[in-house]
Design brief:
Elements (H helix, E strand, L loop, with lengths): L5 E3 L2 E3 L3 E4 L6 H11 L3 E5 L14 H4 L6 E5 L6 H14 L5 E4 L12 H13 L3 E6 L3 H10 L3 E4 L13 H10 L5 E3 L5 H10 L3 E4 L1 H4 L4 H21 L25
Parallel strand pairs: 3-4, 3-10, 4-5, 6-7, 7-8, 9-10
Antiparallel strand pairs: 1-2
Helix pairs in contact: 1-9, 3-4, 4-5, 5-6, 7-9
């Protein structure tokens, strides 16, 4: 097994693809897609998905047991720091003290762009409260550095707006965040297809989190498998180191030096 693992909060993961659990047809399709993705970290919206807060109702944990997956509770639907902190404290209680969480504090319901002042406020409270915080944030390198200084375990800048499928619109900002960060950097939001995931990994991202790109595909299970391959291929390409870009190729792919009729008598 490759030792090129993703390490978050001291735990190593083989898969660099993190997958959400919303928008699927049913729990059976959710499980099939996640199996095809190979994901080990599964994010769950505490405000929208039952993981025990509604006794007697079907629970996602029956389909995705915590013994098999790392459940990542998230604060989707929260618009203030207080709401986000309250939601994650509930998630920690439901998951028997599990400290890993995904923080997102939204600015408005139309774009779902992050409210960074409230995000920073919530992150500071949660870190002090013992949470291992992964944070959905803007692609602003200064804000990402501020989050890292607070003590989050991963920064998760958007590639484009949540659910837009527009792909990576500002690769230069992502590169700035990657180059400065000492914690994992994962693209969160905006991935639409496999090539978007591959590009994120080729840029040097440590991982990619997605939901809509898989769940809203015509065949979610097939798309999940495609995303798995794309993340793996992009990571291998990044590690291999691409050739320099040249407007004109000064040297042909196949050397001509020494060929019969080239410079000989």
């Amino acid at each position: 097994m490759s030792n090129d693992t993703l390490v978050i909060a001291g735990k190593a993961y083989r898969s660099r693809l993190l997958v959400g659990t919303g928008k699927y047809q049913d729990f059976a399709q959710t499980r099939a897609a996640i199996d095809a993705s190979g994901a080990e970290i599964i994010t769950v919206a505490i405000r929208r998905t039952n993981i025990g807060q509604e006794p007697g109702q079907p629970s996602l944990l029956e389909v995705l047991p915590p013994a098999q997956f790392t459940i990542l509770p998230n604060t989707a639907g929260c618009y203030t720091a207080d709401d986000a902190v309250r939601t994650l404290r509930l998630g920690r209680e439901l998951l028997d003290g599990h400290p890993l969480c995904k923080l997102e504090v939204l600015g408005d319901p139309q774009t779902l762009f992050p409210n960074m002042p409230e995000t920073l406020k919530a992150a500071a409270t949660l870190v002090k409260d013992g949470f291992h915080v992964m944070v959905y944030c803007s692609d602003d390198p200064i804000q990402a550095r501020m989050l890292e200084d607070i003590g989050v375990v991963a920064v998760m800048p958007l590639a484009s707006l949540i659910g837009s499928g527009m792909g990576i619109l500002n690769p230069w900002n992502l590169k700035l965040i990657i180059e400065q960060s000492k914690v994992p950097v994962l693209v969160d939001a905006g991935v639409g297809t496999a090539s978007d995931a591959a590009i994120a990994m080729e840029l040097g991202c440590d991982g990619v989190l997605m939901n809509t790109a898989i769940a809203a595909a015509k065949d979610p299970v097939l798309m999940a498998g495609a995303m798995k391959k794309a993340v793996e291929a992009g990571r291998e390409a990044f590690r291999a180191g691409r050739m320099p870009k040249k407007f004109y190729a000064a040297t042909p792919s196949s050397p001509v030096g020494g060929m019969i009729g080239q410079g000989g008598k």
